[in-house]
Write a structure and sequence with these properties.
Layout lengths: L2 H4 L13 H11 L3 E6 L2 E7 H8 L2 H5 L1 H10 L7 E2 L10 H11 L3 E6 L2 E7 H11 L2
Antiparallel strand pairs: 1-2, 2-3, 4-5
Helix pairs in contact: 2-5
Amino acid sequence: MKVRDKMTMNVYTVSPGDSIRRISELMTDMRLRRFPVMEEGKLAGIVTDRDFRNATESSVVLTEKKYHEYLLDTIKVESIMTTSPRVIGPDADLKEAALMLVEMKVGGLPVVEDDHLMGIITETDLIKALVELLP
């Protein structure tokens, strides 16, 4: 089974210059946890719910809503994203993707072919594949 068979193809992306409020809204509205960061049509990085939490959680922010709102509008994706993320190709074996996720201790990998974002393969996609295989 190949990554292309199980990857999520309709991926919500963000730009480096977006405020992290966009991340917050996408996490809430779409119930997603990771977003490829695109710049000029190319993958520039990835930002996750963990990156977002690390940027917004502090005792001051948690006690003062106005500071939280200020951070959401002020902090840019580029300041919290992981640049040059590891990627996988759509023709890689699903097992290779699973091993990479375990080795790297991450929940998803952008799927890239010829410098074009094709989708994302996540731990949820892998669990769905496993469920299909189990009797």
